[in-house]
UniProtKB/TrEMBL annotation:
The keyword Transmembrane helix applies. This is MFS transporter. Pfam families: MFS_1 (PF07690). Residues 1-381 form the Major facilitator superfamily (MFS) profile domain.
Length: 384
């Protein structure tokens, strides 16, 4: 069967983003208990390394644009695959905190290299009517990556946490090959950016950027400490891989983000996603000894997380269709700063506050952010 342009780009993008985000970027949180036991690192050091992974992600975001301008939008996605594979190998072999940090930084940078360029790839390669669905499919690839990560966690429970990172390295190579086969090589855009449009771009994106700050901060706290809090509780060891698999499976609904946003508005979807993530964090912090509560937390987090990231791609393309990649990158950069700060801050306050209360406090931030965003109407909604 011959795939359409949207199908080819969507499949390749889902594979690459799935590995970069669903596996390489969040593999650290999943393997955190094993890393702590094996390398004997303090909470502060573990928190700083977690923040460093998102610093790598931020570096990838900032460097992807100049690379795409010189060599086309597919080039950063190839570099991201290489970083994911190399980082996975280094973490697999790491025997010191320095090598561990280097590996997770490289692996974490993969998401920054690959995500935003797909907005430009979709804009150039996919017909207009297929773009919202294709963007949602690409973003929802993270769900598939999380399901695979949960499967690797089962192997890790039988052997070592290093098996997870070996699997990440292999998956990154496979995804990179698929990307090279299915995504056309776009020529770089030689048109100069209009500096006069910078202020108008910032004005158009002020609400999505504020959403990014809250959304990425609360999501990274969930992923960083979900496995940790389950591992320290009375639940079975299988609860951790099951949690990641449940997040991935429930997150598949993110494919419908484009259609839902057209019905109720992108800003309303974003607000509901923050509320949903807040509820998931509250359950994680208050009822970590209940298997049923953890299952509900994982499922509703999967929905809020995947639709929350997909709606940002749709939202920025809707507000600034002629500069979709630049707009999306701007919001991701803003979110990356909060992703860097959140784990470091959490690692500093956990010894005094406790992990459970920290999760509840983070839940309150997410809920308040969703409530504040709820009255807002996007430009499309006001026009309609």
């Amino acid at each position: 069967m011959t795939l359409s342009a949207g199908g080819r780009v969507g499949l390749a993008g889902a594979a690459v983003v799935g590995v970069a985000f669903g596996m390489a970027r969040y593999g650290y949180g999943l393997t955190l208990p094993g890393i702590r036991q094996d390398l004997g690192l303090s909470e502060l050091v573990l928190g700083l390394i977690s923040s460093a992974t998102f610093a790598g992600y931020l570096a990838g975001l900032l460097l992807a644009g100049p690379l795409a301008a010189r060599h086309g939008s597919r080039a950063p996605t190839t570099v991201g695959g290489i970083c994911g594979a190399l980082g996975g190998v280094i973490v697999t072999l790491a025997q010191s905190p320095w090598l561990l940090a280097l590996g997770v930084i490289l692996a974490g940078s993969a998401g920054g290299w690959v995500w935003a360029p797909y907005s430009d790839i979709v804009t150039r390669s996919v017909p207009l009517q297929q773009r919202p669905r294709t963007l949602a499919i690409i973003t929802t690839g993270t769900s598939g990556g999380l399901v695979l990560l949960g499967g690797l966690a089962v192997l890790a429970a039988l052997g070592s946490w290093r098996l997870v990172w070996a699997g990440i390295a292999i998956a990154a190579v496979v995804a990179a090959v698929v990307n090279l086969r299915l995504v056309p090589r776009n020529r770089p855009d030689r048109r100069p950016e209009k500096s006069a449009g910078t202020s108008s771009l910032a004005k158009a994106l002020r609400v999505p950027a504020a959403y990014s700050v809250v959304y990425f901060a609360v999501a990274v706290i969930y992923f960083t400490y979900a496995a940790d809090i389950l591992d320290s509780g009375p639940l079975l060891a299988a609860a951790v891989p099951a949690l990641y698999a449940a997040i991935g499976l429930s997150g598949m609904v993110g494919i419908a983000t484009g259609a839902v946003a057209q019905r109720v508005g992108t800003s309303r979807v974003a607000a509901l996603c923050l509320v949903t993530v807040g509820a998931a964090l509250a359950l994680l912090g208050l009822a970590s000894d209940s298997l049923a509560a953890m299952a509900v937390s994982a499922c509703i987090f999967g929905v809020g997380y995947m639709m929350g990231s997909a709606v940002l791609a749709v939202w920025t393309a809707e507000l600034v269709p002629d500069r979709a990649g630049t707009a999306f990158t701007g919001c991701l950069v803003v979110g990356a700063f909060s992703s860097v700060a959140a784990p470091a801050l959490a690692g500093a306050v956990i010894p005094g506050l406790g992990l459970g209360p920290l999760l509840v406090l983070t839940a309150a931030v997410s809920l308040l952010g969703g409530m504040a965003l709820m009255p807002y109407r996007s430009l499309r909604g006001r026009t309609a």
